[in-house]
Design goal:
ibrinogen binding protein from staphylococcus aureus fold; 37% helix; five-stranded antiparallel beta sheet; seven-stranded antiparallel beta sheet; alpha+beta; 23 strands; elongated
């Protein structure tokens, strides 16, 4: 379900009860479009999240811990100046739209009480957060919208705040029969469910479809063919829904089908009856649970975009270099023939005259003693022609030797980069991303930053930790630094080491403590190795495993690169469901 007006209304009912009259202790801005207000109210501490994330804009109470930047952004500092220590005096949802106004009373620099309004506009990619003064002037906003971005409505400090355009819909809470029937009359050619959500604020297509379902009318039925009785039935079901909203009769839940999330709902919907439902005590808990994975993945994708681009460029460079190397190899594949020509000319030097352009000589290196035609430079003596062939051979031989080294080096770099790209996909938090940046910086792919005095050193992220169904600890590296740490420092000689065969991926360690590892644990660890690899979407992925003592790192090898022997191979089809069943710490 879209984060619609009904969901917002349910959350505002919750936070009004808990936060109205509370004081804002702290203001944080973990992301450029995200604010967290720490509020002390009724003897308890609450955290209110407001985000204008283009993909998942919303507000709700949160218990999650977010990492804040070392230097607070400008918007955060403006909020701290104007509303920190302020009192929340009003929380409203104008016209049942996807807009929230939080009015805060606070002392200004002169010691006078003033009221500022924190506005959250939830409008998809046009979502925004802004602080407005008593004169409806924008003090600051999360996203600056200048004239070159929008000629209709600018959002800049000092500009007058105006409501977003397109406010011709009716407030759902003001529903009455005459208004409803009149709105249908205007939309004769529209599908019934579309006519409802296009006429009333805060109604999503999902809710409009539910209204049709309860009235036993097809959602796609054109309004123009509805009978008067069907229109009245629509109104009755719509009115019953609005009465629930007015009474704040909410039942927040997430609906599943075959363990896949279908939707989050502030109300029980009849059309989803029979499906698995996870109920929550509050709409904030529901919203946080629903967006937890989606929001994290969106943020990680945003922050890894430049890394993926950088790695992709270098992979493309290596692929092009490989094509050039293969062409060069083909160009010198006849080098032994050059040597043969030089030797045959030398052996028959007295039978060759200067000025000849070709000569046919028997190949005495061959069992068949066949005749070979050799091209000659008529301007050179026979000895000089032989030397010319030997020079060309020696040059081709040196080129071949150099190419062999270059091909190995290029292939190793390509494998390394593809492994790093897989590591980027395995990132779970911002620290994982920082670790990969640091690794690429050490390897020379990113320019090193000058050291700054007094700058805090970031702690490295930790590998993923799982417990097998047999009780064995399984560790999975999320990047090459972690892979090296796990394999070379954490694991003991008898622990089991796993990795996808000739496929970039994570190092997986089973801590055996000298005990025999059951097949169940081996299968679960292999499933983790296959899932956290480049072959995540493949079938029957080969996973090599052996004791740690059989794994070695060559001198000078890139991070994450090891060699091993005495291994066995398991074939696993990666499955997200199988991975989720393994207990993660």
């Amino acid at each position: 379900m879209a984060y619609d007006g009904i969901t917002i209304h349910s959350i505002l009912h919750e936070i009004t009860d808990k936060l109205l009259g509370g004081r804002i202790d702290k203001v944080y801005q973990p992301e450029s479009d995200e604010i967290i207000l720490s509020v002390r109210s009724l003897g308890k501490n609450y955290k209110l999240l407001l985000t204008a994330n283009p993909s998942h804009p919303r507000l709700h109470l949160t218990n999650s811990v977010r990492e804040n930047p070392l230097e607070p952004p400008l918007f955060c500092m403006v909020l701290r100046k104007h509303i920190q220590s302020g009192k929340i005096i009003e929380i409203t949802q104008p016209n049942f739209d996807r807009i929230v106004n939080i009015k805060i009373e606070a002392l200004n620099e002169m010691g006078d009480y003033t009221v500022k309004t924190l506005v959250l506009e939830i409008m998809g990619r046009h979502s925004n957060l802004m602080l407005v003064d008593e004169d409806m002037r924008v003090l600051e906003c999360a996203r600056h919208i200048s004239f070159d971005k929008s000629s209709v409505r600018q959002m800049l400090p000092g500009k007058e705040y105006t409501m977003p355009p397109g406010g011709d819909k009716t407030d759902t809470l003001l529903l009455d029969e005459d208004n409803f029937l009149a709105s249908l009359e205007k939309m004769q050619s529209e599908k019934t469910f579309a006519a409802i959500y296009k006429s009333y604020n805060g109604i999503s297509p999902v809710i409009a479809d539910e209204i049709c379902y309860n009235a036993k009318i097809g959602a796609d039925t054109p309004v123009g063919v509805l009978s008067e009785g069907e229109k009245k039935a629509l109104y009755s079901t719509f009115y019953a829904l609005v009465e629930k909203i007015r009474a704040n009769d909410y039942s927040p839940q997430i609906v599943y089908e075959n363990d896949r999330i279908i939707d989050m709902l502030p109300l029980s919907l009849n059309k989803f009856s029979g499906l698995k439902v996870q109920k929550f005590d509050s709409p904030s808990e529901m919203t946080e649970a629903f967006y937890a994975t989606k929001d994290t993945q969106y943020r990680l994708n945003q922050k890894t975009h430049d890394l993926k681009h950088l790695i992709g460029q270098n992979i493309e460079r290596c692929v092009k270099k490989r094509a050039i190397q293969q062409k060069s190899l083909k160009d010198i594949e006849n080098r032994e023939q050059l040597k043969l020509c030089g030797e045959l000319i030398t052996a028959n030097i007295y039978a060759i005259k200067q000025g000849m352009t070709t000569v046919k000589l028997n190949n005495y290196y061959s069992e068949n003693f066949e005749e070979i035609e050799i091209e000659l430079d008529s301007a050179l003596t026979p000895a000089e022609n032989a030397q010319k062939y030997f020079k060309r051979y020696n040059k081709a031989k040196r080129t071949f030797a150099a190419l062999q080294e270059q091909i190995v080096s290029n292939d190793e770099e390509l494998d390394y980069l593809e492994g790093v790209l897989t590591s980027v996909s395995n990132c779970e938090n911002e620290q994982d991303i920082k670790d990969i940046r640091s690794e690429l910086r050490e390897q020379g792919y990113i320019k090193k930053e000058p050291k700054q005095k007094g700058r805090k050193q970031n702690k490295r992220s930790t590998p993923m930790h799982f417990i097998s169904s047999d009780g064995f600890d399984i560790y999975v590296g999320k990047n090459n630094v972690q892979n090296d740490e796990l394999t070379l420092k954490t694991a003991h000689s008898t622990d089991i080491w796993m990795h996808t065969k000739n496929i970039p991926g994570s190092h997986v360690i089973i801590i055996s403590r000298g005990a025999d590892v059951p097949d169940t644990t081996l299968t679960e660890a292999a499933a983790l190795a296959a899932y956290y690899s480049k072959a995540q979407n493949s079938t029957l992925v080969p996973v090599d495993y052996t004791q740690r003592k059989n794994v070695h790192k060559p001198n000078g090898a890139k991070p994450g690169f090891v060699i091993y022997d005495t291994n066995k191979t398991a074939y696993i089809t990666p499955s997200e469901d199988a991975v989720k069943k393994i207990k993660q710490i």
